[in-house]
């Protein structure tokens, strides 16, 4: 075995804690940022909520103190707290409020789907075991209204007879909304159809005997199998279309479906002004009591000094990162407004092609920073609330050489399909030819890609009789 020494030179990129913190905060939307700030206020004693009136009183008290009071000489190894606390970096954060506060429209207290079903369950005459089974069945119904958990597993978990579980499940399926607790789409539609006042026997036969043909809209095959006319098939299909394939829709927690914009763009005079919505983030600052204690340079134990140093640096980094987040988001949004001026002035049809790199070059920032800023954040405009990602799209050149956003082409494609003859829908090639006539020369495969992005089915699935 031979011992030897070696010297190796290599280059590594290491992110400083401050950079990691800035990257984390800059990608947080407003609600997540509120939680983060509240968490920091609880964990770090150097951070405290501030009140503007109290700040004025504290400042007046400090002015009345004798500023020329002699200070003890600093020890050789003592931290220069004045240099840290009196530098140019801010050690206070005051949230920005738009000139007109966002007014939340009062919302009624809507019952959740589970609460609505449990209310009906408690109206039934059931023993304790049956009630427990019913509550567990309801607890396994998803947001669309379907039962996700097999009845066999439920019976095993509750140590109950499978026949009893099936009996309670059938009872739950009679509850409002119709079709609730179904295990698949076929069962859901059949329950709704059979509960209607005027039963369409042909529609029931189609769902029971020709469900695959029904899903794939094979009208002629259904007509032949059931020996009925196409008019009867059409009438049955119209009745089935009135049913709800997702009976659980309409029962949701509004708070989970509610968007609070991170930014607000308002037109003031001839200019668009960008405001950052800080929501319910409080004013906060470095705790004045601790700050004054440190500035007085009282002798402290080394462990205490280390603890104080760590928490103080963490507080300063956090406040500085919040300020940088505000600056970066506002710069990004202002650049978007400048690039998409016609959109904010005239509406959606004037959206221009733009990519992340366009904004990154405009404000001299890395494209990854722009991606973090625009991810999951929303802006309120005169034309609605949009995710920042909405303003970015690829460009395509029209037949006359003009560059347009692909979102414009997708909108044209949707209009063409909405207005097509439903008895003979257009193929992707026919749609491409129509778009070319309007000045958008795109290939059939591109039409297919855009159609799939818009969740529009293929020609066969759009056909009606």
Q: Assign an overall shape.
A: extended
The strand order across the widest sheet is 4-3-6-7
In percent, how helical is the residue content? Answer: 40-55%
Give the strand tally: 9
Residue runs with pLDDT of under 50 for 5 or more positions: 66-79
Number of helices: 22
Helix and strand composition category: alpha+beta
Mean pLDDT: 81
Quote the distance from N terminus to C terminus. Answer: 86 Å
Q: Give a short account of the largest sheet.
A: 4 strands, mixed
Total domain modules = 3
Radius of gyration: 32 Å
Compact description:
It contains 22 helices and 9 strands.
Explained architecture:
The chain has 465 residues and is of the alpha+beta class. It has 3 domains: 15-62 and 79-96 and 259-392, no CATH class; 113-241, RNA polymerase sigma-54 factor, core-binding domain (Arc Repressor Mutant, subunit A, Orthogonal Bundle), CATH 1.10.10.1330; 396-462, Homeodomain-like (Arc Repressor Mutant, subunit A, Orthogonal Bundle). The protein contains 22 helices and 9 strands. The protein has a 4-stranded mixed sheet. Strands 1-5-2 form a 3-stranded antiparallel sheet. A hairpin with a 5-residue loop joins strand 8 (395-397) and strand 9 (403-405). The N and C termini lie far apart (86 Å). 19% of the residues are buried.
